[in-house]
Specification:
The protein is α/β, with parallel strands linked by helices. It has one domain: TIM Barrel (Alpha-Beta Barrel), CATH 3.20.20.300. It contains twelve helices and twelve strands. It has an eight-stranded parallel beta sheet with strand order 6-3-2-1-12-11-9-7. The protein has a two-stranded antiparallel ribbon with strand order 4-5. Helix 3 runs parallel beside helix 4 and helix 3 packs across helix 12. The N and C termini lie far apart (about 50 Å).
Length: about 350
């Protein structure tokens, strides 16, 4: 059995700029399998590299991730290229620029030994969402498909897996699932015609990972998508033929409270078909979930799906910054932010 196959189904976080001893112990728990970084974990590229190295030492093989889409959702700023919101690519260079941005984002993160970013956003913006807005590549499926596919190609060129979110689409509800449980009342045919189309296309192109939404689609199922065997097993795995890794959205969000306490949330998400659950900004809850899942069963198929999320080749930061390709891409993306 490889070291990776022993990794558990829980993705955790850490509090600050360095790894505390008790946090290192928690990462060694058999149910731990990943770690997500936040803005509070970042001061400089050098500090980030040291933190990641400490995490790797504490638990070799751990998957390390971050939300680094651009715009409002970019955890590391100074020392990294500022990426525009996804909506900026339409009409400002289109797919070529989106692919450059995906490559640039991924290369800079890989230079810090981070495996992947939870990107691209595949939601279709309907003009009402409080949380999606300009995080979406556009307000129609074709635009989202065209630009998100390019962004994912850039990530792949940099050796980084892509994660489409938020399945089956978060753009059609007003509420922010961080603070409430949104309910989307549209029918399945309406979702098929609009929101599901980017997921269907990118899955066909080899999308590596997917994150379901903490949204109830009440005309179809009474459970939020991330806790729904219907959405995950019947639709995502069955109808759409998705064979990649499935990550729950953060179980500390208000949209996840529908499933009960933290242990129930983790259990129900995994039973519904998620491969890894995220427990962020709640260390007590993370400890509870780890203990609850101490006896989890290793699944070779699950391990294989998660293994494909690992960064595919190392990137030296100094060599990257000295390269003509990085300099050209950084200039292009930086100029877009000044428009």
């Amino acid at each position: 059995m490889t070291a990776f196959a022993t990794l558990g189904p829980v993705m955790l976080d850490v509090a600050g700029l360095t790894l505390a001893a008790e946090e290192a112990d928690r990462l060694r728990h058999p149910a731990a399998g990943g770690l997500i970084l936040f803005r509070r974990n970042y001061e400089s590229p050098e500090q980030l590299i040291e933190l990641v190295a400490a995490i790797r030492t504490a638990r070799p093989g751990l998957l390390i991730a971050v939300d680094h889409e651009g715009g409002r959702v970019q955890r590391f700023r100074e020392g990294f290229t500022r990426l525009p919101a996804a909506a900026r690519y339409e009409g400002a260079g289109g797919a070529d620029l989106a692919e450059q941005a995906g490559w640039l984002m991924a290369m800079e993160l890989r230079a810090a030994d981070i495996d992947f970013s939870f990107a691209p956003v595949l939601d279709v913006e309907c003009g009402i969402s409080q949380v999606i807005g300009d995080r979406a590549f556009g307000g129609d499926p074709e635009t989202v498909i065209h630009l998100a596919s390019a962004f994912a190609r850039g990530m792949s060129r940099a050796g980084m897996a892509s994660v489409g979110k938020h399945f089956p689409g978060h753009g059609g509800v007003v509420e922010d699932s961080h603070h409430a449980l949104p309910v989307d009342r549209r029918s399945r045919p309406e979702l098929d015609a609009r929101d599901l189309r980017p997921f269907r296309t990118l899955i066909g192109d080899g999308l590596d990972g997917i994150m379901p939404a903490h949204v109830i689609y009440s005309a179809i199922d009474s459970r939020p998508a991330g806790f729904s065997p219907y959405w995950i097993q019947e639709v995502l795995r069955g109808e759409l033929g998705f064979t990649g890794a499935i990550f729950s959205d953060d179980l500390s969000m208000a949209g996840a409270a529908h499933a009960g306490g933290y242990s129930d949330r983790a259990r129900l998400a995994l039973e519904a078909g998620c491969d890894m659950v995220l427990v962020c900004n709640a260390p007590g809850a993370a400890a509870e979930v780890l203990d609850t899942l101490s006896g989890w069963s290793a699944d070779p198929a699950r391990a294989g799906r998660l293994e494909r999320m690992r960064g595919r080749f190392p990137v030296d930061r100094a060599a990257l910054l000295a390269s003509r390709e990085w300099q050209a891409a950084a200039a292009l993306i930086g100029a877009l932010n000044l428009d």
